[in-house]
């Protein structure tokens, strides 16, 4: 038992859930007056209920990556956790200081097909508030970065390609389901870009230096 605990002692990081979930739930219940996030481009993006598939696949994508790195690479697990949890905390702070939401959810006919039924359920359980930046977009980018940076996955080209496809589909799903504004996604991309430099920047510069040395012989 002692060996098991020592091997997986990095599980303490997951205690962050006890901070994020109550905080997010509080915002969902209390934010009723908020700044509308809406730009003209949002109106040109059509609603498509089929994007509910990648939207919900996000849960598997993020959880699967966390589980994989938890058991395979403590170093990658810590980096991914740092990337995700820091961004999620920043998002909560932004939504607390600057309450925000959208106003362009369309009327849904839940009887049209199974996908509209799921979207209707999503709309009924998830408010249109606390959208900037989009955690769906941010975390998806974070997972894909972790996959690309992982030494254990470098030889698995199919996994890396699939991860890129999943990340792209999830990001698109947020706007095609009218869950988020384009602004929310751009804010997430900007935040991910900044966090990448902080979490993975040193390794990136090291790899570039080694590649340059190899090219020079």
Structure notes:
Helix 5 packs antiparallel against helix 9 (182-215). The protein has a two-stranded parallel ribbon. By secondary structure, it is mainly α. The chain is built from nine helices and two strands. The model has no long low-confidence stretch (mean pLDDT 93).
Order of helices and strands: HHEHHHEHHHH
Question: How many E strands?
Answer: 2
Number of helices: 9
* Largest sheet data: 2 strands, parallel
- Termini separation (Å)? 50 Å
What does the overall shape look like?
globular
Average the pLDDT over all residues and give the rounded result. 93
Indicate the low-confidence ranges by residue numbers: none
Rg is 19 Å
Helix content: 55-70%
Q: What portion of the residues fall into strands of 2 or more residues?
A: under 5%
Strand order of the largest sheet: 1-2
Please state the structural category. Answer: mainly alpha
Provide key terms for this protein.
mainly alpha, single chain, two-stranded parallel sheet, 2 strands, 70% helix, 217 residues
Summarize the structure.
It contains nine helices and two strands; from the N terminus they run ααβαααβαααα. The chain has 217 residues and is mainly α.
Layout of helices and strands:
Elements: H1 2-7, H2 17-30, E1 35-36, H3 40-44, H4 52-72, H5 74-97, E2 100-101, H6 114-125, H7 135-149, H8 157-176, H9 182-215
Helix pairs in contact: 2-5, 4-5, 4-7, 4-8, 5-7, 5-9, 7-8, 7-9
């Amino acid at each position: 038992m002692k060996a098991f605990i020592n091997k997986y002692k990095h599980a303490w990081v997951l205690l962050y859930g006890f901070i994020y979930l109550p905080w997010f739930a509080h915002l969902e219940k209390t934010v009723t007056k908020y700044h509308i996030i809406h730009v003209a481009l949002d109106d040109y993006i059509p609603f498509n209920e089929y994007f509910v598939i990648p939207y919900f696949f996000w849960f598997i994508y993020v959880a699967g990556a966390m589980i994989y790195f938890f058991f395979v690479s403590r170093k990658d697990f810590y980096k991914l956790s740092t990337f995700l949890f820091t961004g999620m905390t920043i998002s909560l702070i932004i939504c607390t200081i600057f309450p925000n939401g959208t106003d362009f959810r369309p009327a849904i006919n839940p009887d049209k097909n199974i996908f509209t039924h799921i979207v209707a359920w999503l709309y009924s359980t998830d408010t249109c508030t606390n959208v900037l930046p989009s955690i769906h977009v941010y975390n998806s980018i974070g997972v894909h970065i972790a996959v690309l940076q992982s030494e254990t996955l470098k030889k698995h080209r199919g996994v890396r390609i699939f991860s890129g496809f999943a990340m792209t589909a999830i990001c698109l799903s947020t706007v095609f389901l009218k869950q988020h504004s384009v602004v929310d996604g751009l804010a997430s991309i900007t935040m991910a870009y900044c966090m990448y430099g902080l979490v993975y920047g040193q390794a990136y510069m090291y790899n570039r230096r080694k590649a340059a040395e190899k090219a020079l012989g």
